[in-house]
Fold these 2 entries.
Entry 1:
Amino acid sequence: MARRTRDLPDFFEPPALDPIQAATGGQTTRPAAAKKKAGFYLSVTLLDRFDRKFYELKLAGAAVDNKSALLEAALSYALEDMERGEESRILQSL
């Protein structure tokens, strides 16, 4: 007796249709921006303050994904402030 061969899915090919995208009508996540790991030395006090603030924000329900996202937002804000020139609070404190 001959066996019937069934069409088996090829698990190594990407699926033709993503069920999440089909159900929601769009992309499930934002495309990741190009990132590069950076290493800096920070004082223990500053690092403790940063960690404490991160966890306070998480407990308060803030939309902070991770510490990298919080640091990126803070650094972006600081750079925008310094671009103000003489009006910069950061440059005045240096």
Note: The chain has a mean pLDDT of 83.
Entry 2:
Amino acid sequence: MGGQRLLYTAIMLFTFCFISCTGTPPAFPPVEHAQPESFILDHRDPLSVVEAVLYAADTGDIDVMCNLCDPRLLNDEKTEDLCFIADEDIPKFRKEFRGASIAGEIEYEYEYAYVTLSSTERSEEIKFVLVKRYGNWYLYEIE
């Protein structure tokens, strides 16, 4: 038993000395990858949730849409279709929301927030209803 411990200690000591004597490996220059800018979603702010929809419409980065719906899945059908948008519906979504902007102030009522959008593509305004769950805001309905 004592021989194994001595052998183990000798191997560890040799390894330590070998690594420390050889120095550190040469630093490789950092590889720069072109990272597309992405939307940083802040669920604590209802405006950020709605701005994620506008960002997706403007840029085509639909991946930001997957975390916008109510985690209890109590959305209306329009909102659910928006959060889990099918590939064939993306061009229609982009046309409908591209260039839209937030109109007016957020209205709050209990755990609901109301955000109105105006769009050059539509004559009427679009109103998003958001619900606060677990301290975060999610899309709930589209009126």
Note: The chain is about 35% helix and 20% strand.
